[in-house]
Write a structure and sequence with these properties.
Largest sheet: 9 strands, antiparallel
CATH class of the largest domain: Mainly Beta
Radius of gyration: 30 Å
Number of strands: 35
Structural class: mainly beta
Helix content: under 10%
CATH topology of the largest domain: Jelly Rolls
Strand order of the largest sheet: 4-7-18-9-10-11-14-13-12
Length: about 525
């Protein structure tokens, strides 16, 4: 039997009719089996694309369950508890609007042509997503947009000082790292005094990367990577996927970011892609494709971000004259931590003050609220972004009593005056120096707020109530939303008691909580 050698014009098999090389129809082919005393033939699937999310950003296999921190779909409305909205209602029509799209279960950020330059429409999560050491924060979202070269669309996990941003201006796409860690353009080769520098070195991994200080805040640096310098699939019709990103159809994007001070960030897009397609064929599958990875490991004398605890942000800004209104539509959004831990807390507890309560009258026993600032022993303060999770309520009653946990009451009666518990500066005591909570036990009345739990205790009764079915790290919790204005605290939780039938009913209670 002659040798069978791939690539020959004719391959002879057997003693008679030769068989042409290469694939043919079934009528022109012969079935082949492997001899029973031979090893199996390895199979190479040339049409299956390798997964780009099998490992996390640190190279660890993703074998642990993710800790979900956030999901929002805007099916019924734009949830005001989840999102902080910024629009400009000047002009006719309004310069910018944010509206719910009921048929699309989405939110639309729109800027009209009559708007002033620098007009924005912004939709930002009211909470930050807390970084966990050695874990990867993973955010994803679906968007579509109508663009203009005089408007900037920005989406990602960022605030005004730190984060990772997908920036789209007309047909130009950029991936941006923003930091206030102290980094300057001079750390990237810029001459002394330069505040805006672009690397021009074809031998550098960072060729065409632009490093600029924001004119509005020179303490903030942006590393701006244009599409031409992306080190993954540029999605320009030429790159490995042979897919061209439309920038107008609904597209899902994903940003994976670590920190550790020097970890990377990865931008991915969910697009149609099959491997090794013949010319003219169309991809039948879709998957996550790496578009670009910003590497900061062993590269900088500063951490990649000044603060890795960041919100989801979507924003459109008018930069010049518009030929038509521009918009950004936001659909599903999600944030999770690969292998995140929801049980690691610093534990604190505070008891209330015993009080005599009567039927029909609510009496606060204990109020806890999230501080605006946390100040360390050196006197340095940072904005409080901790999540506070009430874990247990301990209740005692002389006679039958109804207890309630009221979130964000509008008024507390302290020293004979009704005050706003989120803005009043006196009457609250810090639970501990580095605690996120301060408390009050002297209030005698409460108004407003929403009841998140109700409990009952009997005659000469004591109850220990586990609160994990109500409060959880990724369910109901207390925090200070980043949208809060200066001089205000965050969420407030008040333990309220009311006697069921007996006057002069002596009651008390305490709350134990975890912070992270």
């Amino acid at each position: 039997m002659p040798d069978i050698e791939e690539g020959k014009q004719v391959v002879s098999v057997g003693r008679s009719e030769p068989i042409p090389a290469g694939q043919g129809s079934m009528a022109q082919s012969l079935p082949v089996v492997i001899a029973s005393d031979q090893t199996p033939v390895p199979i190479l699937d040339n049409l299956s694309a390798p997964s780009e999310v099998h490992d996390d950003l640190l190279g660890n296999p993703r074998v642990q369950s993710s800790l979900q921190l956030w999901d929002s779909t805007n099916i019924l409305a734009i949830d005001p508890k989840a999102w902080d909205l910024t629009a400009d209602d000047q002009g006719t029509p309004d310069f910018s609007t944010i509206t719910h799209l009921p048929l699309e279960s989405g939110a639309q950020l729109l800027i009209n042509t009559n708007a002033n330059n620098a007009t924005i429409a912004r939709m930002q999560s009211r909470f930050v997503f807390p970084y966990q050491t050695g874990r990867i924060t993973d955010v994803s979202f679906g968007v579509s947009m109508l663009r203009d070269s005089n408007a900037t669309h920005e989406l990602g996990v960022f605030d005004g000082k730190n984060g990772y941003i997908i920036r789209i201006i007309g047909n130009d796409v950029f991936f941006v790292r923003r930091t206030n860690s102290g980094e300057t353009p001079q750390n990237h080769g810029a001459p002394i005094g330069s505040t805006d520098f672009t690397v021009d070195d074809s031998s550098s991994l960072y060729d065409d990367h632009r490093y600029r200080l924001l004119t509005s805040d020179p303490s903030v640096l942006e590393e701006i990577v244009p599409r031409s310098a992306f080190n993954g699939d540029k999605l320009d019709g030429v790159a490995p996927s042979v897919h061209t990103l439309s920038l107008s159809n609904v597209t899902m994007f994903r940003i994976q970011m670590g920190w550790y001070g020097g970890s990377a960030a990865r931008l991915l897009a969910y697009v149609p892609v099959d491997e090794n397609l013949a010319a003219g064929q169309v991809a039948k599958n879709a998957r996550w494709v790496t578009v670009h990875q910003i590497n900061t490991a062993d590269r900088l004398p500063f951490p990649s971000l000044g603060n890795p605890n960041l919100p989801l942000t979507f924003q459109v800004t008018k930069d010049g004259s518009l030929t038509q209104a521009v918009f950004l539509k936001v659909y599903g959004t999600k944030a999770e931590i690969d292998g995140g831990d929801a049980s690691k807390y610093d534990i604190f507890s505070q008891s209330g003050t015993a009080a005599a309560v009567d039927p029909g009258t609510d009496r606060p026993l204990l109020t806890i609220r999230c501080k605006e600032l946390i100040t360390n022993a050196d006197g340095n303060s940072k904005t409080n972004i901790a999540r506070v999770v009430p874990l247990m309520a301990n209740l005692s009653s002389e006679y039958r009593t109804k207890f309630r946990l009221v979130k964000n009451p509008t008024g507390l009666d302290i020293d004979g005056s009704v005050v706003d518990p989120q803005t009043v500066s006196s009457g609250f005591v810090s639970s501990a120096q580095l605690s996120a909570i301060e408390y009050n036990t002297t209030a005698t009345g409460v108004t407003g707020g929403s009841t998140v739990a109700t409990f009952f205790a009997g005659d000469d009764d004591g109850q220990n109530i586990i609160l994990e079915e109500i409060f959880r790290y990724n369910r109901e919790f207390l925090t200070r939303p980043i949208s809060s204005s200066g001089g205000t605290s965050g969420d407030v939780l008040t333990l309220v008691a009311q006697s069921v039938a007996d006057s002069g009913n002596t009651v008390n209670g305490s709350i134990t909580w975890g912070e992270r």
